[in-house]
Each structure stands twice: as C-alpha cells, then as structure tokens.
Design brief:
There is one protein chain. The protein has helices at residues 3-21, 31-43, 45-60, 65-95, 107-175, 179-198, 207-222, 250-259, 294-299, 302-314; strands at 205-206, 231-234, 243-244, 269-276, 279-287, 319-326, 329-337. By secondary structure, the protein is α+β, with helices and mostly antiparallel strands. The chain has 2 domains: 3-140, no CATH class; 178-337, Heat Shock Protein 90, CATH 3.30.565.10. The strands form 2 sheets. It has a 5-stranded mixed beta sheet, covered by helices on one side. Helix 5 runs antiparallel to helix 6 (179-198). 22% of the residues are buried.
C-alpha cells in the first residue's frame, strides 16, 4: 500500500474515532467539556501509536509473546494513569482548585479507563498487523510477477537462438546451390533479426508485425523448396489491429518446415490465420514420414515446450491448443483471446 493511502487511512480512522468519542454535541459549547473531549480524543492516539510503532514491531512481530504481554500490561496501566491525570488536570484548571487532586481516582475508575486505552491499543495493533499483511501480500505478488517476467525472458531467449540456428543452416545450404537465393535469404534474415531485436523485447507486439514477420519466415523457408505450390499460407487481407505476445507461432511453423514432405500429391505445409474481433485462430498442418524416429523428438522438443509455457504464463485460461498427430499427418490448432492486449 502506498504511503499516501496509508496516511489517508490514518486520517479516516481518527476522524471516525473523533466522531465516536463525541457523545453529545452540546458539549462543544462548554469550554471545559470541549477541552476534555479534545484531550481524550488526542490522548487515544498515544496507546494506538505506541503499539503501532513500538510494541507490535518490537515484540509481537518477532514472536516474543511473553514479553509482549508483560510490556503491554505495563504500558496500558501507565498510560491509563497518565490519561486520567491529564483529565483531572483539565478539570482542576477550570475549577481553579488543585487540592485533593486524586481524590476521586480509584481502582474501579482506573479499570474503566484502562478498557478504553486497551481498545485503542488493540486497534493500533490490528491496524499494524493488517497493513503488514497487505504489504507482504503485495511483495509476494510483485515477486511472482518478476519471476514470471524472468521466466518469460528466459523462454524467449531459448526461442530466438533456435530459429537463428535453423535459418543459418538453410542459408548455408543455399550458398552452394544458388547464390541469388542465398542473397535473398540474407535480406529476409536481416528483416527478421531486426524485428526480433527491436520488437520482441516487449511483452506484446502488433499482430500485423507478427504476421509480417511470419510471412518473411515462410518466404525464407520457401527458397529451399523446389515446388512453391506445396506451401500454402492464408492470411486475411483486413483484420483488427490487435496486440499479441511475440514468437508464439514460430515453433510450430519451424517444425512443420523441418519435417514436412514436399514430394508427391499431398500438400507440404498449410498455414492459416483467422482473426475475429479479439480472437486469433492459427493452424498449421503438414504430412511427414512416420518412419523417421526423429520426428517424435522434433515435435516434442524445446520449441513446443517453451511455447506451451509461454501460453500458460501470458494467456492462462484465454487460449486453446490442440495437436493432432495421426498416420503421418500433423496439425496444430491454436486459438487465443487477446482481450485487446
């Protein structure tokens, strides 16, 4: 809780306490009773803040319970005596008579006054404990948030080198076969790395930039495919300008390109985006050779595990992920409710 809110809460408490201590508005017209009212109200702040600043932090919070009880009893008895002495002094001042100053003061009177002082002290104690609980809760939430941010940063750092490793391998293969295509690939890689360096540092990016980034990646991978018709990417011409977490779709696309079959009648890779209001629908599918054992490792590797963790961190109950793997056909379906974020 901020200091400003704590101060406002203190002010509210004492305004409320002053209201409760005022038993009869007619007393405000009597100077003696007005003085007693003001003194008694202000004096209640002493046990309140004595326990708030000293007794509770020094003994109760440190679990020194026996010392807390002993100190509390001594402080309450002493403050009760001081409080009554102050009130008796005000009465004697207005009556101009200081003889027999403590004549009316007795054990029953002391216990009666001590109950009021104890109430103020207990309220100060509970208020201190309550604020400590709020601060502790806020600190835990902040630590959890910082932990989540650190984990997301670590997951992102795992995604980027993974993509770079695959892309450099692609370019290396192209250099020996077609230098023009290799040059085009380097230009695409430059655009992609610029996006990854400057855009993805934020928790969210523009959906249009993310889709453009994916289009560049598809174009880069397509340079290695002899039949461009074996790759189909469907993106709507117009869609809402939403924000989305970066690099969520790329692990699925990378795996699709890595294991897809580009020979024969079957389509190599199909990628689809559908955007409806604040919902983003993404799917990618491809055929692969079931006889390749490394296929299993590819789809259950670091990239997929990371994107699942990121989805849980960022979107929690606002996403749906379904993966179909059957008879050499692999399909990923992902739906994200962005809520405009």
């Amino acid at each position: 809780m901020s200091k400003k809110n704590v101060i406002l809460l203190h002010v509210f408490i004492w305004l409320f306490g002053a209201f409760l201590n005022l038993r009869d508005y007619n007393e405000l017209a009597n100077p003696e009773k007005l003085s007693i009212y003001i003194a008694s109200t202000l004096f209640l702040a002493i046990p309140f803040y004595t326990f708030y600043f000293f007794v509770v932090p020094r003994f109760l919070e440190k679990r020194k319970y026996y010392k807390f009880i002993l100190v509390a009893l001594v402080v309450l008895a002493l403050l009760t005596f001081i409080g009554y002495s102050l009130l008796l002094l005000i009465v004697a001042t207005f009556k101009h008579d200081f003889s027999n100053f403590y004549e009316i003061y007795g054990f029953k009177m002391h216990l009666s006054g001590m109950s009021v002082v104890t109430a103020a002290a207990m309220f100060g104690s509970f208020f201190k404990i309550f604020l400590n609980w709020i601060n502790t809760t806020n600190q835990k939430e902040q630590l959890e948030k910082e932990k989540a941010i650190s984990e997301l940063a670590l997951l992102k750092s795992k995604v980027n080198p993974h993509f770079l490793f695959n892309t450099l391998n692609n370019i290396d293969a192209l250099i020996y076969h077609d230098q023009d295509k290799a040059s085009q690939a380097l230009l695409k890689l430059s655009e992609i790395m610029r996006y990854m360096s400057y855009e993805t540092v934020s928790e969210y990016v523009s959906l249009s930039k993310e889709i453009n980034y994916i289009s560049n990646i598809v174009s880069l991978y397509s340079l290695r495919v002899s039949n461009p018709n074996s790759i189909k990417i469907d993106i709507p011409d117009n869609y809402p300008d939403l924000n989305i977490a970066p690099l969520l779709f790329i692990p699925f696309i990378e795996n699709a390109f890595k294991y897809a079959i580009f020979k024969g009648d079957k389509l190599g890779i199909e990628i689809n985006f559908t955007i409806e209001e604040k919902r983003v629908f993404f799917s990618t599918s491809n055929y692969y050779d079931p006889s390749e054992k490394k296929q299993i490792l590819g789809y259950c590797g670091i990239g997929l595990a990371n994107v699942k963790q990121r989805l849980e961190h960022i979107y929690k109950d606002k996403y749906w992920l379904n993966i179909t793997d059957k008879n050499g056909f692999y399909k990923v379906e992902l739906r994200i409710v962005t809520n405009g974020n």
